[in-house]
Design goal:
Blueprint (H helix, E strand, L loop, with lengths): L2 H5 L18 H10 L3 E5 L6 E7 L9 H4 L5 H8 L2 E8 L8 H10 L7 H41 L7 E3 L6 E3 L4 E3 L12 E3 L2
């Protein structure tokens, strides 16, 4: 057993070391293993100071098609091909600490199996899309309703239909509508606001 493996028992289990990059601490690798024993981390050969999070192929042989392999030039993808791994995402370490909680939260949110499988996830996405379309239609309908109401009230005000005079009832301060007869000329052409209102007392 190497000295590094003795100090960190997860080296070779779910971490493939590279002497250029720091090794995640044992507690970090243990948490990752407890979440999913098929997850593997290795330092990126393509992105400086980054790690690749990959998953051991479970249901297939992984990315082993020779025709595809011959076209791969990206070193991290090539490493996954050769080690029967499926790339999941990149991990960037910020600062001097090692945080695992945010990575596990992200993995849980993206875990299709935990959400009931691909069909279940597709159904949820369809429901969300339909709910979004319904909300957009409702917003458009409400907007049109409000605009049409404003336009109608503006039309009434411009043609004098809302110029109702009121007189207070005897003994009260509450105004009541007048009952005089109104004669309104029909608006002409596009000058709807130029109508004349005649009233008789």
């Amino acid at each position: 057993m190497s000295r590094r493996a003795a100090t960190n028992p997860w080296i070779g289990v779910n971490f493939i070391p590279n002497f250029r990059m720091a090794t995640p601490p044992a507690y970090w690798l243990r948490r990752l293993y407890d979440f999913d024993a098929d997850l593997v981390v290795f330092p990126s050969k393509n992105q400086p100071f980054a790690y690749v999070l990959a998953r051991r192929a479970r249901l297939t042989g992984g990315m082993t098609d020779q025709a595809i392999l011959d076209t791969v030039t990206q070193p991290d993808t090539l490493f996954c091909f050769k080690n029967r791994l499926v790339p999941v995402s990149m991990i960037y370490r910020h600062g001097t600490g090692w945080s695992i909680d945010n990575i596990i939260r992200s993995l849980k949110a993206r875990d299709i199996w935990a959400q009931g499988g691909a069909e279940k996830v597709a159904e949820k996405m369809d429901e969300q899309d339909e709910a979004g379309r319904t909300q957009i239609k409702k917003d458009i309908r409400d907007d049109i309703w409000n605009r049409s109401g404003d336009a109608w009230r503006s039309y009434q005000a411009r043609t004098g239909q809302r110029s109702r005079l009121t007189v207070p009832k005897k003994g009260t301060n509450v105004p009541s509508p007048r009952t005089e007869r109104r004669i309104q000329t029909a608006p002409s052409g596009s000058t709807a606001g130029s109508g004349i209102v005649l009233a008789t007392a």
